Amino acid sequence: MKFVMRRKGLLVIIGLCICVVLIVAFFFGLYSARELKKIVSEQFNGQQLILARQVAHEIENSLNYAMQELVSIRYIVQHGMPISKALLEGVYERVRGKGIDSVGIVDINGKTLISAGRDLIKDLSSVFQKKGLTGPFLHFLTKKKQILVLACPLTEDKVAVFLVDVYKFVKGHVDKIRSGKTGYAWVIDQNGYFIFHPIKKFIGKDAFKARHEEAPYFSFKEINILQKKMLNGEEGTGEYASLWHGETKKYFNKLIAYTPVHLPYTSTIWSVAVCAPEQEVDAVIHRAYLRHFFLQGAVIFALLLIGLFLLISERRFSDLLKEEVARKTEILKKSEKRRRLLIEGADDLIFTLDLNGRLISANKATLSFFSKDKEILGMDFGVLFHWSEQQSKRILEQLSRGQTVNMEHTIEVNSQKYWLNTKFMPLNLGDIKEILCIARDITEIKQAEEQLVNAEKLASIGTLAAGVAHEINNPLGIIIGFCNLLMENTPKESQSYKDLKTIEKHALHCKNIVENLLNFARAKGDGYKIADVNKSLEGLLNIVKHTLEVNNIEIHTDFAKNLPLVRGDEQELQQVFLNLITNAMDAMDSKGRLFISTKFNPDTRCVEISFQDTGCGIREELIERIFDPFFTTKEKGTGLGLSISYGVIKKYGGTIICKNQKKGATFIITLPIAEK
Ligand code: ADP
After folding, report:
1. pLDDT tens digits along 576-625
2. 206, 261, 281, 366: which sits with the fewest CB atoms below 10 Å from its CB?
3. How far is CA 66 from the centre of its chain?
């Protein structure tokens, strides 16, 4: 699942990256297009400038050439050669291609002496007077006619003259110029009048006014600024808005390059401009764009393809994963069901705890063992097992270190003691950290073990006791006999008599032990006698009643009526009951209450006899040892009373257990009823 999440995240990131790349590519494309346009426009204008310069040079060169021709005529004259019409016609032939209309020799009054080409204008005298006849010069005859006079004095009274039709002359150089597909050149003179323009009606007009007249509502601010620079003789490039281009009338943004034309032998400057609409550049840019967008498109397409591929493979992968998850889930469900069945069907108590020792889950066996329903869930296991806080803390600590804890312990449930073998195991299932507990009820095994040990102990003690008793009994009889004899002959007040009395007392104590031992050895008798428990008890109580009264012990009895007969010898059972009553008396230290009850338990088909006293009780750690032969806490005790009693009860198939009450001890005897 984590992997799928990570994969999805990756896809989202890739998708976002593609979007970002596309957006960046788009803006980059726009930016680069703008930059490209700027660069191409600059380059285009650079080319237009070259064209303008070329035109300017051609005009300058043509005029220079014509002037040189005039100077060469003067040279001929200075060398005394006559100027004939044929010579002038030869000159005319050479210069007519440069836009020279007429060639002639005139006198200083302007009278034509010889001419070639068109007729010369007659009134040139004022021109010569104005300029003086010192060297070659260039003169505009009139503004309107745009006739240029190129003159060179030959002698004091003769002048060689070329007349140039400015329009024709300039047209010859400018008309052929093409910038891009539709771009053209135009020329203005030093006063801002169009010398040449593809729109014929502009020719001879003031450029500023002509534009304004054509479109009075439109602002020609940009071109006017540029034109002023042209009139100043500057060279440069720029852009301007216009409402026409040649004969085409619409809004145009135009690119322009301009350069001055320096006319020879005068300070007059014309200016040539080459202009073209921006669309010319757009065509170039479109070609570049096309390449650029093709590349960009290819990259985007590749990115989209990659994205699509990733998407499809992710879909396929997630489908596969889903199928796999469904299959695994099914397997898991089955195995979980099997596990549940196993756990629920187990006789062992199986339950889990959280790391704080609280019950998370429990199987049926656990719930029925504690005779509780689900309310034990959430309970502290220490509380459930009646353990001290320290003990449960110690177990949890061991588990937190990853150790498994295995222990045998007792537990009291509904006033009944059980032995459990409990195993605590830390479970580390990735995120799940729990404690698994499996407890097995080993009460029966324990009891069997206990019985075996006691039976073995008793068997060996019995053999030993019989031998020892036999060997000691006779010498003891002799000791007591001789002691009595000596006492008869000794005065009662003497020290010797007292000493003999002590010997007798201890010897009698020994004899008592020996008799008990013999009883113990004899206990292995026939296990098939029948006794009435209530009758045995009543008979016994009649005998010990007085002693109990003397010791301030109240007797409370609760004997069940119609109690069935049990298997056992009445005398032996009385011996057992007497042992228990004597022990209770000893424990109560001359004051207390003794409760004796009998009842029939139909479930176990046993008679239960309980002796409950209000004495000192038995220390918990000693409970297990009280049935051991010779275990006693009394100064003068033999430690045989309970072991003999145990032997007797066992012989008749019964049990005898001891419980500590809040105050005092309780002994419970169960004896199987004598079946008919
Ligand atoms: P003895 O009475 O000679 O000591 P028992 O076998 O009868 O030998 O008892 C063993 C020990 O069990 C006693 O010494 C005493 O410590 C303990 N005991 C038996 N019965 C009781 C009782 N009712 N209350 C307290 N302690 C008892």
Report:
1. 998 999 999 999 987 899 999 999 999 999 999 999 999 999 988 888 88
2. 206
3. 90
Distance of alpha carbon 531 from alpha carbon 568, whole angstroms: 5
Q: Is the CB of 665 under 6 A from ligand 1?
A: yes
Which atom of ligand 1 is least distant from the CA of 583? Answer: 20
Distance 151 CA to ligand 1 centre (A): 165
Could you tell me which of 410, 477, 439 has the C-alpha nearest to residue 624? 410
pLDDT digits (tens, 9 = 90+) for 97-121: 777 888 888 887 778 888 888 776 6
Q: Are 223 and 214 in contact (CB under 8 A)?
A: no
Instruction: Report whether 113 contacts 130 (CB < 8 A).
Output: no
Q: Any residues with CB less than 8 A from the CB of 211 and at least 6 apart, and which?
A: 220, 223, 224
Question: 36-300 and 349-441 share one CATH topology?
Answer: yes
Contact 147, 11 (CB under 8 A): no
Q: How many helices (H) and strands (E) does the chain have?
A: 15, 22
pLDDT tens digits for 269-309? 899 999 999 888 777 677 766 777 788 788 878 888 887 89
Distance between CA atoms of residues 59 and 451, nearest Å? 142
Q: Which residue is it, tokens 């257990």?
A: 657
Is the distance from CB of 655 to CB of 648 less than 8 angstroms? Answer: no
The CATH superfamily label for domain 36-300 reads PAS domain (3.30.450.20)
612 lines ligand 1 (CB under 6 A): no
The predicted pLDDT at position 495 comes to 92
DSSP 533-591: HHHHHHHHHHHHHHHHHHTTEEEEEEEPTTPPPEES-HHHHHHHHHHHHHHHHHHHTT-
446-521: CATH, from 1.10.10, 1.10.260, 1.10.287, 3.10.450: 1.10.287
CA distance 15 to 21: 10
Q: What is the dihedral of CA 411, 415, 417, 423, to 10 degrees?
A: -20
300 vs 361: CA distance, rounded Å: 58
Q: Whose CA is nearest to atom 26 of ligand 1?
A: 618
Going by alpha carbons, the residue nearest to atom 14 of ligand 1 is 632
Helix (H) / strand (E) element for 15: namely: helix 2-78
Rounded to two decimals, the pTM is: 0.45
CATH of 349-441, one of 3.40.50.150, 3.30.565.10, 3.40.50.300, 3.30.450.20: 3.30.450.20
The CATH code of the domain at 530-672 is 3.30.565.10
> With a 6 A CB cut-off, is 584 part of the ligand 1 pocket?
yes
> β-pairing, 553-559 with 592-601?
parallel
Residue 383 Cα distances to 363, 376, 387, 405, angstroms: 18, 10, 6, 18
The reported pLDDT for the residue numbered 454 is 64
The token pair at 50 is: 């070259």
Ligand 1: nearest atom to the Cα of 632? 14
User: What angle, 0 to 180 degrees and rounded to 10, lies between the N-to-C axes of helices 443-488 and 495-522?
Assistant: 150
Neighbours of 340 (CB within 10 A): 11
For the CA atoms of 101, 158, 140, 145, the dihedral, rounded to the nearest 10 degrees, stands at -50
Q: Amino acid letter at 279?
A: Q
Q: Which of 211, 209, 166 is nearest to 187 (CA)?
A: 166
Residue 149: count of CB within 10 angstroms of its CB: 20
Q: Which atom of ligand 1 is nearest to the CA of 615?
A: 24
